[in-house]
Amino acid sequence: MIKRGGRRDFLNIPNILTYFRIAAVPVVLVALNPPVTPTAFHIAFFTCLAALITDYLDGILARRKHMETPIGKLLDPLADKLLVLAVFIMLIPLKKIASWIVFLVVGRELIITGLRSIAASQGIILKASLLGKNKMISQSLAMLCFVAFVPSFQRVLDILGNLFLWISLILGYISAGFYFVQFLNQMRRF
Predict the structure, then answer these.
(1) Has residue 168 been placed in a domain?
(2) Based on the number of CB atoms within 10 Å of its own CB, is 145 exposed (0-12), middle (13-18) or buried (19 or more)?
């Protein structure tokens, strides 16, 4: 159940962790702005890792402590998308990800965000699917592999990053299909 409150809910711990993830985006953007030094890669890696840990923690706290809020429901998935997409876009000039793959990732996220907005305007809540959650996990793993800087393992990390990226693309588009089916089934009930 989502609590509807005032300032206290706006500043609860899960939401503060989400704000941290949003604040991490400019740090990553600056760190990955070419030319990128090994230190900048380390900053990007540890910032992304900290952001992913806070994502995990804010979800646990919000659900277990009944601290879910409307602002948290809105900002949590937005923070995830902002971080992953910022990293992927910044990796294009570094030749770690092809621009067309990033376009497919961004396109899928825009389509699903639009679908969820349309659904919400009709009073329909599209629940996150297990495929969608696994998509986010594989995107996160891809992101960490790409920004990790370990010269003796760099080739392996880049291969793993691409593997997780492809897994996330496949899961992402399959889950998008399930979201559309879920939306159409809900619309038929009206």
Answers:
(1) yes
(2) buried
